[in-house]
């Protein structure tokens, strides 16, 4: 038994709707990756702050035993606090 004309039109509308939905999702994902988005911010400021904290922690615990930290002496404070401060600066870019 052949399908009625109404069912064929409904099926065509459904296919067109699915294609439009797929195009909208694709456009949304491309817009998300555009240069103007700020999705990178949490992926940068969290590790930056953690590296700063770890730098200071390692300096406090084993600073005299790590050759690079021993050579830097008190500059380690500036490096660790600078990393933490730069983490806060990057965090201000988040929307």
Please provide a written account of the structure:
The chain is mostly helical and 95 residues long. It is rod-shaped and about 90 Å long. It is built from 4 helices and no strands. The longest helix is centred in the N-terminal third of the chain and has 28 residues. The model has no long low-confidence stretch (mean pLDDT 87). Helix content is 77%, strand content 0%. It folds into 2 domains: 37 residues; 57 residues.
**Number of helical elements:** 4
Percent of residues in helices: over 70%
* Secondary structural class: mainly alpha
Mean pLDDT: 87
- Residue runs with pLDDT of under 50 for 5 or more positions: none
Q: Tell me, what's the shape?
A: rod-shaped
| Rg estimate, integer Å | 27 Å
Count of strand segments: 0
The profile of the biggest β sheet is: none
Order of helices and strands: HHHH
């Amino acid at each position: 038994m052949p399908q009625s004309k109404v069912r064929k039109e409904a099926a065509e509308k459904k296919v067109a709707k699915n294609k439009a939905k797929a195009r909208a999702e694709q456009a949304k994902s491309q817009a998300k990756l555009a240069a103007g988005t700020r999705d990178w911010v949490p992926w940068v400021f969290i590790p930056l702050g953690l590296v700063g904290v770890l730098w200071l922690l390692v300096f406090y615990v084993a600073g005299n035993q790590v050759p690079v930290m021993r050579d830097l002496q008190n500059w380690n404070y500036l490096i660790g606090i600078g990393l933490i401060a730069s983490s806060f600066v990057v965090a201000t870019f988040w929307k």
